[in-house]
Write a structure and sequence with these properties.
The protein is mainly alpha-helical and 312 residues long. Helix content is 78%, strand content 3%. A 3-stranded mixed beta sheet has the order 2-1-3. The chain is globular. It starts with a helix and ends with a helix.
Length: 312
C-alpha cells in the first residue's frame, strides 16, 4: 500500500490563501515581519529565563518551554508559506506533508499539556503558597515537561497511524498553505468518514476537554482565593487573565478546525494564520508586558546586549 501511495501521488499542491498578487504581496510582508517577531520574541524570553537568576523559578521554566514550542509550531509551516508566496506553483512532497502534520500535532499536543501544567503551577502558587517550592520542585518541573513532550509525541503518532496507509490517487490539491489532517484525509481515494470521526475525537474533543478542564481550574482558583481573601481576588484575576488569554488563543482555532462540521475555507485560513503566526507572538507579548519581573529581566538583557556591542 505504501508503494502504491508514493507511485500514484508524489506531491501535493497548495492553493494558498488568495490568487490575488496584491494580497499575496501584503501577506508576504506580514508573514516575514511577524515570523521575525515570533523568532526574536520567543528567543529573548528563553534567553532571559536562562540568563537571569531572578527568573529561575518553576513558572518561568514552564514559560520558557512554552516559547520553545510556540517557535517550533510556527517554524513548521510559516517559512514554507513565505517561500511559496514567491511562486505561483506551490508544492510539497508526500513526505514533506506528512512531516508537517506530524510536527504540528506533536507541538500542538505538547503545548496543550504544558498549558495544563502551567495552570497547575498557578493553582499551587495561589492556593498553596506555603507549599509551592516543596511541590513545584525541580524534579516535578522536569516530570511535567517530559510528560508534555511524551504525550504530544504519542498524540501525533496515533493521528498518523490512522492515515499513513491511505491510498492517494488524485486530486492532490490542498486548499490551504500547509498540510493538516482534515483536508489531507479528504484527498484519499476511499470513504474517510470513520477516519474523520476518529480525528475529531482525537484532536477536537481532547481540545474541548482540555480547555474545559483549564477553565474549571481557573474558576476553582478564583473561588478559593475569594473565600480566603476578597482583596486577593483582583490580584489572582490579574495573574490568571494572561493564562486565560493564551488558552483562548490556542484552543479556539483548534476546536474550530477539528469539531466544526461545516467547511468554511476563508475562516479556516484566517484562523490558521492566527494559530501559526499571531498566537506564537502574542503569547510572549502577553506574558512579558503583564509581568513586571519579566519586563525587568528583558530590560537587563537588552542592556547587557547593548553594552556587549559597545565593547566590540
Amino acid at each position: 500500500m505504501n508503494e502504491l501511495n508514493y507511485s500514484m501521488v508524489s506531491e501535493f499542491v497548495f492553493l494558498g490563501i488568495s490568487n490575488s498578487w496584491t494580497i499575496q504581496l501584503g501577506l508576504l510582508v506580514f508573514a516575514i515581519i511577524f515570523y521575525m517577531a515570533v523568532v526574536l520574541g520567543n528567543f529573548f524570553i528563553v534567553l532571559a529565563v536562562i540568563s537571569d537568576s531572578h527568573l529561575h523559578s518553576p513558572m518561568y521554566f514552564l514559560l520558557a518551554n512554552l516559547s520553545i514550542i510556540d517557535l517550533g509550531l510556527s517554524t513548521v509551516a510559516v517559512p514554507k508559506m513565505i517561500y511559496d508566496l514567491f511562486y505561483e506553483h506551490k508544492v510539497i512532497s508526500f513526505m514533506g506533508c506528512f512531516t508537517q502534520i506530524f510536527f504540528i500535532h506533536f507541538m500542538g499536543g505538547t503545548e496543550m499539556v504544558l498549558l495544563i501544567s502551567m495552570a497547575f503551577d498557578r493553582y499551587i502558587a495561589i492556593c498553596k503558597p506555603l507549599h509551592y517550592l516543596t511541590i513545584m520542585n525541580p524534579k516535578m518541573c522536569i516530570v511535567l515537561l517530559v510528560s508534555a513532550w511524551i504525550i504530544g509525541f504519542i498524540h501525533s503518532v496515533i493521528q498518523l497511524a490512522f492515515v499513513v496507509n491511505l491510498p492517494f490517487c488524485g486530486p492532490n490539491e490542498i486548499d490551504s498553505f500547509y498540510c493538516d489532517l482534515p483536508r489531507f484525509i479528504k484527498l484519499a481515494c476511499m470513504d474517510t468518514y470513520k477516519l474523520e470521526f476518529i480525528v475529531t475525537i482525537n484532536s477536537g474533543f481532547i481540545s474541548i476537554g482540555s480547555m474545559f478542564l483549564l477553565f474549571i481550574s481557573y474558576i476553582y482558583i478564583l473561588v478559593t482565593v475569594q473565600k480566603h481573601s476578597s482583596s486577593g481576588l483582583s490580584k489572582a484575576l490579574s495573574t490568571l487573565s494572561a493564562h486565560i488569554s493564551v488558552v483562548i488563543l490556542f484552543f479556539g482555532p483548534c476546536i474550530f478546525f477539528y469539531v466544526w462540521p461545516f467547511p468554511t475555507l476563508p475562516v479556516d485560513k484566517f484562523l490558521a494564520i492566527i494559530d501559526l503566526i499571531i498566537t506564537p507572538i502574542l503569547n510572549p507579548s502577553i506574558y512579558t508586558f503583564r509581568n513586571k519581573d519579566m519586563k525587568a529581566a528583558m530590560k537587563r538583557l537588552i542592556g547587557q546586549i547593548v553594552n556587549f556591542e559597545k565593547i566590540l
